[in-house]
């Protein structure tokens, strides 16, 4: 029921109608990605109003491209984005968990369980899962651990070549670099149509030299990075009308030309510019056989500086003496321009370790999807190195659900209903995965529960190929513990927030404000 007694555009909903609407929105969002989870998950085709098509089974991509108006649905999508930002994988799991917790919580509230008790139980269940996951997490001791290859293969949706490339990149970087909390391995992935698969220590700049006369390959490279336009100092038009102003203009142009010539004396053979360069700079540097890249993105410049040790300068800094200017140069062993891929590769910089995983795709339509697959694999590998692994294939979800059921029985009062919401949400992910693999999901759930209880094991689940119960660790099917932990926590937080919403009120539009209203 909607209350229309409020003035203007302000409207409010009945408490239970709000609950049902939010639960329905969560269900729709969850259903959009349920068919994509697991190794046998299918794809979703996204079509915009112009007829452009995106085919993917990447959860966060589907959610980002969906047309969504309901605020509760948008909250779940934001949670999935947070999962992607923090961990880089597990967005589909987060979405399904959140949708199931909200659906189960709403059902309990409609039966008469107070919302506060349901929310309290959800929070208790999420905390318990975090503790239990920590107890069973197996740390990754070495970059060559075979479990990392399995994780890359699973997260890369069974693409063996992609998994091998990601692991090669991980070995180049080393464990210490991947443990850095500020480093994102997924950002090293670059996908190009018709490119050869390549992994190399270095960075890619998505620009080519300013003209064809500049060199296409350099050895023992000294790099100057200008975080500015490369052009002479601007002089006010009015100042040019005076003798002193015109002389200053001539002197600044002469200094600018001399500074450009001095770059060759410093051994600079690559200049990377944030904005554009003027004709004088292009002519002088071309004659000096210096490669110049202009309008390079800030993000790529940052990676280049980290890798080569270069320090950004403004154009005014070119007036400094040679010794001072040399301290800002970066260095790399080799630079190569790839005209086919329309990019420039910088190899073996003297600064921080960087790697580029270049992924080839046969057609433009699959470039973005292969890049997403490789990024998921890279993020999963890094998460596993940081936080260890747990049994995959749905084994850990079923095990956690069983422990939550026992925990619920130990509670007094109605808080147990909230704990059971978390339990049902965990089972939902298993049921979706089993159904996508082509099995009777309830039958497989019963088999796994019985097998885990009989063997007292958290590692038992079913093989998606044969359907037989197997030890997931022995099979090499593992998941990053951080992905599971963050997914359960994020889903629990958004579910609690949405269940606590008692009513939805449409905010007043600024056009309806009354300027003379008495406060």
Task: Give a verbal description of the structure.
- The protein folds into 2 domains: 2-138 and 390-499, GroEL-like equatorial domain (GROEL, domain 1); 202-354, 3-Layer(bba) Sandwich (GroEL).
- Helices cover 50% and strands 14% of the residues.
- The chain has 18 helices and 17 strands.
- It has helices at residues 15-34, 59-65, 71-86, 91-110, 115-136, 146-155, 160-173, 175-179, 243-265, 279-287, 298-308, 322-326, 364-387, 395-410, 415-436, 441-455, 472-475, 481-499, and strands at residues 2-3, 12-13, 44-47, 53-56, 189-193, 198-200, 202-205, 217-226, 270-273, 291-293, 330-338, 343-349, 356-361, 389-391, 460-462, 469-471, 478-480.
- The strands form 6 sheets. A 6-stranded mixed beta sheet has the order 7-12-11-8-9-10, sandwiched between helices. It has a 3-stranded mixed beta sheet with strand order 5-13-6, covered by helices on one side.
- α9 packs parallel to α10 (279-287) and α14 runs antiparallel to α15.
- The protein is elongated.
Essential attributes:
6-stranded mixed β-sheet; 2 domains; alpha+beta; 17 strands; 519 residues; disordered N terminus
How far apart the termini lie comes to: 30 Å
How many independent structural domains? 2
- Mean of all residue-level pLDDT scores: 86
Strand residue content: 5-15%
CATH fold name of the largest domain: GROEL, domain 1
Oligomer: single chain
Q: What's the helical proportion of residues?
A: 40-55%
Q: Tell me about the biggest sheet?
A: 6 strands, mixed
């Amino acid at each position: 029921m909607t209350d229309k007694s409020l003035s203007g555009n302000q409207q409010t909903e009945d408490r239970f109608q709000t609950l049902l609407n939010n639960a329905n929105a969560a269900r729709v969002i969850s259903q959009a990605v349920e068919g994509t989870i697991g190794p046998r998950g299918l794809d979703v085709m996204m079509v915009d109003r112009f007829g452009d098509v995106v085919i993917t089974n990447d959860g966060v991509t589907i959610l980002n491209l969906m047309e969504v108006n309901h605020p509760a649905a948008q909250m779940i999508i934001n949670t999935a984005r947070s999962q992607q930002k923090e961990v880089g994988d597990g967005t589909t799991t987060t979405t399904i968990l959140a949708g199931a917790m909200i659906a189960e919580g709403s059902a309990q509230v409609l039966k008469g369980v107070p919302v506060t008790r349901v929310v309290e139980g959800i929070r208790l269940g999420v905390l318990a899962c975090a503790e239990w996951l920590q107890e069973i997490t197996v740390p990754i001791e070495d970059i060559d651990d075979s479990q990392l290859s399995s994780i890359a293969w699973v997260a890369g949706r069974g693409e063996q070549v992609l998994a091998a490339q990601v692991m090669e990149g991980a070995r180049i970087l080393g464990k210490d670099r991947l443990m850095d909390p500020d480093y994102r391995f997924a950002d090293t992935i670059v996908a190009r149509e018709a490119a050869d698969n390549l992994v190399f220590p270095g960075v890619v700049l998505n620009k080519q030299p300013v003209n064809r006369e500049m060199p296409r390959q350099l050895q023992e490279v000294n790099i100057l990075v200008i975080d500015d336009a490369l052009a002479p100092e601007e002089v006010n038009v009015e100042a040019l009308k005076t003798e002193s102003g015109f002389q200053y203009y001539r002197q600044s142009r002469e200094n600018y030309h001399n500074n450009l010539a001095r770059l060759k004396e410093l051994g600079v053979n690559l200049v990377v510019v944030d904005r554009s360069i003027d004709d004088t700079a292009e002519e002088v540097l071309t004659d000096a056989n210096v490669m110049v890249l202009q309008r390079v993105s800030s993000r790529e410049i940052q990676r280049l500086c980290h890798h080569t040790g270069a320090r950004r300068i403004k154009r005014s800094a070119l007036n400094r003496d040679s010794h001072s200017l040399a301290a800002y140069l970066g260095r790399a062993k080799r630079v190569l321009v790839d005209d086919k891929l329309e990019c420039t590769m910088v190899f073996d910089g003297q600064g921080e370790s960087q790697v580029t995983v270049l992924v080839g795709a046969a057609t433009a339509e699959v470039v973005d999807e292969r890049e997403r697959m490789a990024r998921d694999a890279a993020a999963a590998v890094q998460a596993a190195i940081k936080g260890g692994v747990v049994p995959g294939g749905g084994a850990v979800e079923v095990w956690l659900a069983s422990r939550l059921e026992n925990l619920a029985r130990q509670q007094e009062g109605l808080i147990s209903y909230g704990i059971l919401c978390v339990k049902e949400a965990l089972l939902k992910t298993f049921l979706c995965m089993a159904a996508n693999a082509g099995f009777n999901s309830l039958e497989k759930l019963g088999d796994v529960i019985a097998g885990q209880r009989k063997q007292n094991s958290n590692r038992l689940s079913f093989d998606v190929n044969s359907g037989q119960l197997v030890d997931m660790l022995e099979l090499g099917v593992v998941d990053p513990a951080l992905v599971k932990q963050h997914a359960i926590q994020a889903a629990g937080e958004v579910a609690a927030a949405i269940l606590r919403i008692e009513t939805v009120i449409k905010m007043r539009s600024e056009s309806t404000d009354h300027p003379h209203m008495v406060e």
